[in-house]
Amino acid sequence: MPSLPPSRPPGFSRRTLLAASAVGLALLSTGCTSSPDDEAAEVTSEQADELAVQVAVQEGLIKAFADAGAADPALAAAVAELAAQAATQLERLRDAAPGGAASAAPSAGPPGGPEAKAWLRGQVAAAASSHAAACLEQSGARAALLGSIAAGLRGQDGRLA
Amino acid sequence: MADDTAGPDLASENTALDEALAASHAAVWGYGVVGAALGPGANATAATAETAHRDLRDRLTALLVDREVDPVGARGAYALPFPVLSATDAAALAVVLEDGVAATWVRVLHQAAERSTRELAVGALGDAEVRAVGWRTAAGKPTVTTALPGLSG
User: What is the ipTM of this complex?
Assistant: First the structure.
């Protein structure tokens, strides 16, 4: 009898997907079909630019967590875990982006007090949508990473509701 | 039309979609267990989730048939990872189901050759994580959100 959940596809793991390097997402797992050279060759300049934009988006989100926490100290403690997860996501994105971050557009800060939470939720949702849209223009490990980050932020959005 | 850049081919994409279909079959079956354990007064969320997985199952089956790929069928039963004897157990099983589904959708994203497939996958992955957050909360998990759904482990 098959077990729940279905077994993970062979050779597919966090390590597989996150073995992204500055020279082009070399997949370290032997279970993947693409060779490191194949993956490096797949990164177009447009894709690299788009990844840099997503790094900037995530950096903006990290700043949003800090700004919201400053506006509402009680919120800072409540969302510390979410902020740490966003930082983990940023780290993975930076590893995957061959060109670093693009310039982030400055955004208005949060309102003070309890409204800071709603503002932060809006920032999380916007970042999730941005990563999801960018995922569609990527391929391979980059698409998987952006899709996973977008999903993680959608979960955070629900948590902040 | 497949993307112009070199990357995964349609056969790899179809294999990943078939794996996602297998996970959808398992989720539909598993939510039957979840709903039964929750009881008639509390299983609306499980019913909604089961419907979502049925819809994805049907969509994946149609997609694969259109591509002349023989879609994987449902098994008669699946082995539970632990006894489901309470509402908390049921929520924990739902977490297992959604996390299992999420892993297959990340695999689809990794293997997708078609933009439309990535669109399907990123939506399904996000929906799975949103449901999982609710179930982790119901199961009393200390951490209910995840940084990288589908990539854990």
Answer: 0.93
